[in-house]
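Sample entry (147 residues):
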Amino acid sequence: LDRSSAFISRIYREDIGPCLSFTRSELSQSIQSAVENNSLTIEPVAMTTLPIVKASAIECGGPKKCALSGLSRPCRHRIKLGDKESYYYISPSSRARITAVCNLFTYIRYIQQGLVRHDAEQMFWEVMRLRREMSVAKLGYFPTDES
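Predicted structure, serialized as tokens:
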């Protein structure tokens, strides 16, 4: 995205940056780069097949500790950054924040590729809806299996 645009710059400052700001700031920056480059992978973790966790996996969180927040939470998903071999276990709230940003980037990419056939006002309001999704995720609200 072209950050020289005042609108995009504002979205980065108010939504993307705070949404991807986690306790581990170096990892946060790597995640933002991976999202921007469309090289982030998020996948579910099979909870029943994790009887033994390698020591290296503990450094990247683990099935019970989020690699981004450092909090003890059940981690049902893990992320991979680009071509790197490491996976990072993430909590549901961290996943919601990352996917909210990914949804915005995907929509902007669709616009740039000419795949969105809406007028400017409709595209603007869809971007605003996606910004709201990021704000809600930042507040810690995310869909659960029960809801």
